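Demo today. Your pick:
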Amino acid sequence: MPNPPPDAVSRALRIFGSILAPTTVLTALLFYFGTQHANWFCRWFGVEYTTLGLTASDYLIRASDGMFVPIIAVAAAGLAALWGTRLLKARLSPRSWRTLRRRAVPAATATGITLVGLAVSAFVAPRWLYDLAGLPGLCLAAGFLLFPLADRLHNEKQQHAVAQWTFTFVLVTIGLFWAVTDYSAAVGENRGYQYETELAGQPDAVVFAGKDLGLRARGVTSTMCDEAAAYRFRYDGLVLVLQSGGSYLLLPREWNRQDGVAVLLPKSADVRLEFSPKGSVREQGC
């Protein structure tokens, strides 16, 4: 008995997967999402992220922070649709199943048109969807996915099914890429806000320097040490945000977005940082 021809969706997935499968492509995508996260995180503090010299590892780690929710949402929605379809097909009579399929076609088509229209509207007026990170991209992906699904419900033996599904996966991937990009940016900005609200409880970062660094900000105190000391100046009231590329990004503990100043301090032999838990008792000398 001859084997049945492979399903069009499976063939299209294999074709599309052969394009995205290379590790370099996936790494580039993760790098891009991590860049979006880092950019908006640093923007919250008024810092240009390129000045930090973040490494590829930094970007890849940050990418995961902005991808958990989109991946979980897509996987959960896919499983729910698959299990729901199987449950309905098993519970309904053949006649009722055919009736449901027939009625689902116009509903899926209308929903797809609505979602794609909502996504397109984001190009015309992007600001009104700004607070809904990832929604335009998800609408584009879901909308274009509903069209071939409606066609499949209408006729299971479509002509040119593989080509149709291949183009569909291209459009769906673009929508998901758009959604994850927006979401990564939103998560980066949210992490910046979260860090600001938690500044009061962050570990103390005390800076010792061989010369006056001129650190003047609300809540930062400067102490001049003995001339014989290896580091003649001490600065308290700072918090380390991150370190990368040979630089420290520091914030005054009383920093706020209205008048706060971030400090980018290069690593050098003339600068030493000491850390301790917030509220711990430590010597105030040099």
Observations:
- The beta strands are 204-209, 221-224, 233-244, 247-252, 263-266, 271-276.
- The helical segments are 8-20, 23-44, 56-65, 68-91, 94-124, 135-154, 161-197.
- The two ends are 87 Å apart (CA to CA).
